[in-house]
Specification:
The protein has 240 residues and is mainly beta. The protein has a single domain, classed as Jelly Rolls, CATH 2.60.120. 7% of the residues lie in helices and 41% in strands. The protein has one helix and 15 strands; from the N terminus they run αβββββββββββββββ. The strands form two sheets. Strands 1, 3, 4, 6, 11, 12, 13 and 15 form an eight-stranded antiparallel sheet that branches. A seven-stranded antiparallel sheet has the order 2-5-14-7-8-9-10, with no helix packed on it. A hairpin with a 4-residue loop joins β3 and β4. The longest helix has 17 residues.
């Protein structure tokens, strides 16, 4: 082939190659670390409505809640078989829950006004791995002031009472729960400043919700009395 013909063929081939669409260069997928779900504090005395980040779970249709000048009334009804969070009765307690990343360490505190008048009523703090559908395989912690069946402050792991119990009979109490790794420390106070430890438990469960609980199980046969605790606030401090 003459040299000029060969050169022309090469030009045609080069032009054809240039006309091909470009193929983007492959890049490695950027690394991504999901944001941690950080819990939030809430002053119920200042709320006009519940913060949308809360999940309110009240399986008992006779239970309810109300926001007023002093805080959040989280009612749990004695009707319809009661409102408990216990393997041998039912899982119809009134719960107010917010999500939290299990790897975080934190301290949660609430101030609650509560008139304990009957056996098996209580109110306090709760940890769970779910917001509904509780059953005998569910994991949860409860830390409450109530009557079970005597007035006092007590913590429970998956329904079973933890070793320590503190006799208490008042109308106002502060409850606090501190998480450090897999260790949970429960304390109470009568002034919100000076704290008395109640119990410490170790649990490797990855709890994904924290919040408030109100229970009323009518073992006493009185269906006319509900638990009516008023929670003034829910405070969270995340450890650095």
């Amino acid at each position: 082939m003459p040299s000029f013909a060969l050169a022309a063929a090469r030009l045609v081939l080069a032009a054809a190659i240039c006309a091909l669409p470009l193929v983007p260069r492959a890049h490695a997928a950027p690394s991504f670390t999901p944001k941690k779900t950080r819990p939030f504090s809430d002053n119920f005395a200042k709320d006009q409505s519940l913060n949308a980040r809360w999940t309110l779970a009240e399986p008992n249709a006779a239970s309810g809640y109300k926001l007023g000048g002093s805080g959040l009334l989280l009612d749990s009804s004695a009707q319809n078989g009661g409102s408990d969070l216990w393997p041998t009765t039912n899982y119809d307690a009134s719960l107010l829950l917010q999500p939290v990343t299990p790897s975080l360490n934190w301290t949660i505190t609430t101030k609650v006004s509560f008139q304990v008048t009957n056996n098996y009523m209580g109110a306090g703090l709760v940890l769970t791995t779910q917001t509904n559908g509780f059953n005998s395989g569910s994991s949860f912690h409860r830390f409450e002031y109530g009557d079970n069946p005597q007035p006092g402050i007590e913590s429970f792991t998956n329904g079973s009472p933890d070793p320590n119990y503190v006799a208490f009979d008042g109308k106002l109490v502060y409850l606090q729960l501190q998480k450090s790794g897999s260790t949970y420390t429960y304390s109470y106070s009568t002034d919100g400043k000076n704290w008395t430890p109640v119990s410490t438990v170790t649990d490797a469960t990855q709890f994904t919700y924290i919040g408030l609980i109100s229970i009323r199980q009518p073992y006493d046969g009185d269906l006319s009395v509900d638990s009516k605790p008023v929670f003034h606030y829910f405070k969270v401090k995340v450890a650095k």
